[in-house]
Structure formats: C-alpha cells, structure tokens
Amino acid sequence: xxxxxxxxxxxxxxxxxxxxxxxxxxxKNNGFAKLTESQVSQIKQLLAxxxxxxxxxxxxxxxSRETISSIKNGxxxxxxxxxxxxxxx
Length: 89
Prior knowledge:
Layout: H1 7-16, H2 37-49, H3 54-60, H4 65-72
Helix pairs in contact: 3-4
C-alpha cells in the first residue's frame, strides 16, 4: 500500500532527511525581486519621514502600495535596517 503525501509534507520530509537543502529566497536572494537593498533603505527612510503616502512611494519605485505596506510592517525586506536620522543642532 502506498501512502500519499501533500506537497508540504513531501518538502518537510525532504528537508528533514537531507534530500533538499533550505535556500533563502527572500530579499536580495530572490532573483525576481523588483527592489534592491538600497531602494528598500530609501523607502524605509521615506516611510519614517512620514511626508509621502505609501501609494506615492510605490509609484516612485514602480511597486504597489501593498508592497510598500509590507516593507513598512516587516513582512518583506525585514533584513534591511534603517537607523533613524538624529537631528544635529
């Protein structure tokens, strides 16, 4: 008798048995990424500034407002850290 595995179960089995290695395909490691780390850093600075809407920022970088929201909320590009600018007196 042959048991059938779901795709998710099959991938779990392959990873746990060394048949498939984990590959980080997030952020800059994703060959389909539309943004660079530098652009994401600029986006995060614009978001911190609070002067532009997410839609406007998205238009400037040719991505959706949803992508900007995901960057802002840490669902995407969380590895890019932007330190707040300190005002110099």
